[in-house]
Write a structure and sequence with these properties.
Elements: H1 4-12, E1 20-23, E2 42-45, E3 49-52, E4 75-81, H2 84-92, E5 98-102, E6 105-107, E7 112-113, H3 128-134, E8 138-141, E9 153-154, E10 169-171, E11 175-180, E12 183-189, H4 195-200, E13 206-207, E14 213-214
Parallel strand pairs: 1-2, 1-5, 5-8, 6-9, 8-10, 12-13, 12-14
Antiparallel strand pairs: 2-3, 3-4, 6-7, 10-11, 11-12
Length: 217
């Protein structure tokens, strides 16, 4: 199975030249580390940064330059900083080509739950609801199962929803899946993972058509 960096590396293959991309908190923040050098991509963070680069090396951090998850980041030449009003105008105005989010649950119809942690105090959903309401291309980065081994790809989400019917693709530590026609369609499997492994780890409706290729990482 893939680790978090492996998931981010596979998602980086979905990023195209000229894209404006919003990176959510968690695994998505790692995607900037793996984008091809021969393409030009603008990474946006909802706290007001456009032009994020990879994470800094140890000892080179600047505590004043952070992403929405309060992690220190680097910026690329031409990067800009602005207030939240401008940042969310970009998001709500649909000026972002691709949104990459983490999730705790995703349903077979594309519903996503990613802000409420059972039994824990949370500050709220942040900008996630704006992102899922405005974006047309949403990829979720997540583990296929929770720590108890239970599927996080469900028939229906059990946690409070962040968005309804909005997720287009999921990359987990086990597979790449597309959501369409109220089902998870298996596109690729992680190295060392079988189709039967994915079937047993997926509660929601899973469609498997033909030979499933192994991910190229």
């Amino acid at each position: 199975m893939l680790d978090k960096n492996g998931i981010a590396k596979r998602i980086a293959q979905e990023v195209k030249d000229g894209f404006y991309v919003n990176l959510g908190i968690g695994i998505p923040t790692l995607v900037a580390n793996f984008v091809r050098d021969d393409i030009s991509v603008e990474f946006q963070s909802e706290n007001g940064v456009l032009g994020m680069g990879p994470f800094p090396f140890d000892g080179e951090e600047d505590a004043d330059i952070i992403n929405a998850g309060k992690q220190t980041i680097t910026t690329l030449p031409g990067a800009s900083f602005f207030d939240s009003a401008t940042s969310f105008a970009m998001i709500r105005g649909q000026h972002v080509d691709l949104t990459i989010l983490g999730a705790m649950e995703v349903a077979e119809n594309g519903d996503i739950a990613n802000w409420k942690i059972p039994g824990k105090m949370v500050k709220g959903m942040g900008g996630a609801m704006d992102l899922v309401a405005s974006a047309e291309n949403i990829i979720v980065a997540m583990m296929h199962t929770n720590k108890a081994g239970q599927s996080k790809l469900l028939k229906n989400c059990s946690l409070p929803l962040t968005g309804v019917g909005c997720v287009t693709k999921i990359v987990t530590n086990m597979a790449v899946l597309e959501i369409k026609d109220n089902a998870f369609h298996l596109l690729e499997r992680a190295p060392g993972v079988t189709v039967d492994d994915i079937k047993s780890a997926t509660e929601g409706k899973l469609i498997v058509s033909g030979e499933i290729a192994e991910m190229k990482i």
